[in-house]
Design goal:
With 204 residues, this protein is an alpha+beta fold. 53% of the residues lie in helices and 15% in strands. Among the domains are: 55 residues; 71 residues, Head domain of nucleotide exchange factor GrpE (Nucleotide Exchange Factor Grpe, Chain A, domain 2, Roll). The strands form 2 sheets. A 3-stranded antiparallel beta sheet has the order 1-4-5. Strand 4 and strand 5 form a beta hairpin. Helix 1 packs antiparallel against helix 2. The longest helix has 72 residues. It starts with 26 loop residues before the first helix and ends with a helix. The model has no long low-confidence stretch (mean pLDDT 84).
Amino acid sequence: MSNTTDPTNSDPSPANNNASPELPQTPEQVMQAATARIAELEAELAEMKERWLRAEAETANVRARSHREVNETRQYAVQKFAQDVVEAADNLHRGLDSLPAPAAGEPEIVTRLREGLDGIERNLLNILERNGIKREDPTGTPFDPNLHQAMAEQESAAHAPGSVMHAWTPAWTLNGRLIRPAMVVVAKAPPGEITASAKLDTTA
C-alpha cells in the first residue's frame, strides 16, 4: 500500500490564502473613528437625558395633580361639614331671637334659658372661628352680590340706597370663601328722592 501523500490534502500555503489582511490604520483614521464614536455616544446620552426629563416632568405633573385632587376632596368634605354646622348655628340664633326680651320680673327659668343659649352660641362661634368659619352681619354695609343674596328691596330714607337695611341671615365664610350668602333686604330711595335726583341730573 502506497504512503504517497495526496497533493490535494496538503496545507494551503500563504500564497494560496485569498483573505486580505487588515491594513494598519493611520493616526488620522483612528482619530476620525474615535470622534465618530464619541459623537454617537453623545447623541445617545442626549436622547436618554431627554427621555429622563420627560419622565421627571410627567411624574411631577402626576404628583401635582394628585395633590390638587386630594386637597379639593378634603376641602369639599370640610366645606360640606361647615355648611351643616352653620345651619345649626343659624337655628340656635333664631331660637335666641324667639325668646322675649329681658324684662324685670320675668320667670327665672326664662332668664337662665336665655343665658344658657347665649353662652352656647358664643362658645360655638369661638370654636368655628378657630377653624376658619366666620359669621358676618352685613347690616348697614353696601350690598355685595358676592356675599349677599337680595330677597327684597324696600324704600328707606334712613339708609343709603343700595345698602343692606336688614339681614334675615348672616353671611358665613370658610377661610375667606363664601359657604352661605346672607339673605338681605336692600334699601332703595323713596320716590321723592328719586325724582329730585333725576331733576338734578337733568339740570347738570
